Amino acid sequence: MSESPPAPGVVDLLGVLAYAELTGFLRMAEDASRFAPTLTDRAALSDLASTEHAHFRLLSGLLESLGVDPEQAMEPFTAALDDWHVQTAPSDWLEALVKAYAGNGIALDFYREAARQLDPAAQDLVNEVLADGGRSEFAVERVRAAIEADPKVSGRLALWARRLVGEALSQGQRIAAGRPALAAMLVGAHGEDLAEIGRMFARLTEAHGKRMAALGLTPGP
Amino acid sequence: MSESPPAPGVVDLLGVLAYAELTGFLRMAEDASRFAPTLTDRAALSDLASTEHAHFRLLSGLLESLGVDPEQAMEPFTAALDDWHVQTAPSDWLEALVKAYAGNGIALDFYREAARQLDPAAQDLVNEVLADGGRSEFAVERVRAAIEADPKVSGRLALWARRLVGEALSQGQRIAAGRPALAAMLVGAHGEDLAEIGRMFARLTEAHGKRMAALGLTPGP
């Protein structure tokens, strides 16, 4: 139990991350069932999904230790995150892999941004999550192999990756607008400064671009 | 690495259990997404799903340590288990809960039957799986509360539970017929004795009936 109630921004942050992990877990499991071409692939994406579930448990445990009901903390963010998943439902295995890798990467960047604003207990959690960061690397191998076998795949997947991040920014801005305490906390003292939020999103987008290049997805001119 | 190749019955047993856990994990995650009425319920069924994934990892790790490719070991059983899930797709949250509880129970009974035939390394695994046995208890509370609120629910769910076990027996007999080494191992020295297999299924059915009574589901006359 915490001695004083946590700041609303902290509860929001843990809530949005918790729901992102819970729903990420479930959607990834669905993609593994639907699209994995072999049992080995299905198991690999299931591993990644299961890691998301473990992160969800860490976050909801932290919320409970702060005296906050996880369900209440997650509730304000379900619509934005569910909408993101609806807008970015993969149509095949390669799209599912790019989504897993890109989604995981955006989430890790977001944990890093968030880490600067959290107290030591939450820092431990962030470090634990970041330690799992390499788990989506199998997706890189699979996507690169597919592009090598058929270079045309690259353009289609690059467009797909751009859509993933575009929809994420759009839902992210919706969340920032609706949860001023969260936005204020994420960008520190400049919380009221919309341009500062814009700069944070720009950093996330830039990091996303680097990951997409690592996948072999270079956007057209 | 094992010094001598494992018996075909052992590989079959680990393979069928591994695929049951992998696909159980994925189907349960799907049911959690589709039917859970609250985020807390969704998280609770996700916990159970995630435990299945952990068991899958234990089993596939054991197969690998025996020098066996998990995918190859699972392959002979995918059709029967996939068909079971198609025949027993829940249509609402209560059916999903009864399936999770009944399916988990049948699986644990099957681990117990199997345990008698395995070597010490596999015994440890079985004990680890059995230690997780209490995790589906949340389903009991939810189903009993629903029956208390509306006693008519009981008859419908009792029929549903009967269908779950009926389809399981049917797929189980299909597996036993197609994998004689597995059937022989499970019923020990009496492997060629179809009546002995029948008695094993009778024990599983009886245990299932007891669990359904615990849920408050008593079959009609």
TrEMBL record, chains A, B:
Q: Which residues form the Ferritin-like domain?
A: 9-188
Which InterPro entries does the entry link to? Ferritin-like, Ferritin-like_SF, Ferritin_actino
Q: Which domain of life is it from?
A: Bacteria
The protein, known as: tRNA-(MS[2]IO[6]A)-hydroxylase (MiaE)-like
The organism named in the record is: Sinosporangium album
